[in-house]
């Protein structure tokens, strides 16, 4: 999922710092270090963050999980 998070952010052309600032503005208390761990797969992302990211990116939930169920 980390690769999908990184790709969505890069496609949106926003830095981790700016993204975290926007998430904080929307009520998600998250720092850049924590978000970097989401992208690297070191930490599981909270559902509340996924919900806000979906609103920011204007994407579907499927975009976050793309390729994860490949057999």
Q: Could you characterize what this model shows?
A:
- The protein has helices spanning 2-12, 16-25, 32-40, 47-57, 62-65.
- It has 71 residues and is mostly helical.
- The protein has a single domain (2-59), classed as 434 Repressor (Amino-terminal Domain) (Orthogonal Bundle).
- Helix 1 (2-12) crosses helix 3.
Helix and strand arrangement:
Layout: H1 2-12, H2 16-25, H3 32-40, H4 47-57, H5 62-65
Count of helical regions? 5
The mean pLDDT is: 94
- Estimated structural class: mainly alpha
C-alpha Rg (nearest Å): 11 Å
How can the largest sheet be summarized? none
| CATH fold node name | 434 Repressor (Amino-terminal Domain)
Give the ordered list of helices and strands: HHHHH
% residues in beta strands: under 5%
Q: Globular, elongated, flat, extended or rod-shaped: what is the shape?
A: globular
- Main CATH class: Mainly Alpha
Low-confidence stretches: none
Strand segment count: 0
* Overall helicity: 55-70%
Number of domains: 1
What are the main properties of this structure?
434 Repressor (Amino-terminal Domain), 71 residues, single chain, mainly alpha
Describe the structure concisely for a colleague.
The protein is mostly helical and 71 residues long. It has five helices and no strands.
């Amino acid at each position: 999922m980390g690769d999908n998070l990184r790709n969505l952010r890069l496609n949106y052309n926003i830095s981790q710092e700016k993204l975290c600032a926007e998430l904080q503005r929307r009520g998600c208390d998250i720092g850049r270090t924590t978000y970097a761990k989401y992208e690297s797969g070191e930490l599981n992302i909270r559902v509340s963050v996924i919900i806000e990211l979906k609103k920011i990116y204007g994407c579907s939930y499927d975009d976050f999980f793309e390729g994860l169920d490949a057999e």
